[in-house]
What we know:
Layout: H1 2-35, E1 41-45, E2 55-60, E3 64-68, E4 73-74, E5 96-101, H2 107-115, E6 128-133, H3 141-155, E7 160-162, E8 166-167, H4 171-183, E9 188-193, E10 201-209, E11 213-224, E12 233-239, E13 245-248, H5 254-258, E14 266-271, E15 284-288
Parallel strand pairs: 1-10, 6-7
Antiparallel strand pairs: 2-8, 2-9, 3-4, 3-5, 5-6, 9-10, 11-12, 11-14, 12-13, 14-15
Amino acid sequence: MFQTTKRAAFFYFRLLTLILLSAKAQQAHAYQAKQSKPPLQLATKYQRGVFVGDYWVSEKLDGVRGYWNGQQLSTRNGNVLSPPPWFIKNWPNITLDGELYSARGEFEQISACVRRKKSDGECWNALKLMIFDLPHLSGNFSSRITAMQRLIDASHSPYLSMVEQYKIANNRQLHRLLNDIVDNNGEGLMLHLADAEHQYGRSQNLLKLKKYQDAEAKVIAHVPGKGKYKNLLGAIQVITPEGIRFKIGSGFSDLQRKQPPKIGSTITYKYIGKTQRGVPRFASFLRMSNQH
Length: 292
């Protein structure tokens, strides 16, 4: 009798342990799924010698990367966003890769809007998800352009649109388009290889072209201003992920000089090449980095 009771107790103990472990595993899986980054195709830098006629060209929108998995919207880092229900109404139940965008020069407003967890959602009225690819659709990029346009037409959503794609004949036309976009406060161009399948990770099938390079760095100190910038920010001292320290004193608005980026925050700066020591040349503040 004692042996039977002992066996039964051991059995129920093991069963309870398995149930608890299973629940823990499910929680861990859910957490991992919540934290994991979406599998994105990432661009490489444009290099001279590329035959432009092989590519579709579009403007590089300066917004927040938006990834719709058919049910929810997240950023490139996997942070789930909270758009109003009316924003995603009638969106298709397939994967869309795009940019949450309103207009040129409005990155900070876009980022602030999508970052809010609790709001009346009014700021989302100005946004659209500008899709530029259908990751799970087979076929080359040209066929995916056709599919994107049909999808947009069928959704009837005012908050879902498509990044316009162009065919460019040569490098002269390409750089003429680049200059026109940059002169009008745009960021640059993207080039999609027309006959390429979608590829996850860093890919030569997707190129980005800018008139400058950009990177991120952490703010480690404020340098007081002099002359007309007396009692204001003169420059910030930053450190790159590689450990390179340098100062950035240009690119700030008057408001940013009064309310400079906080120490410990991450900023994006632009530059043109690097010194032999690896210090970015002609570095200029571009914006606060997207922390999503």
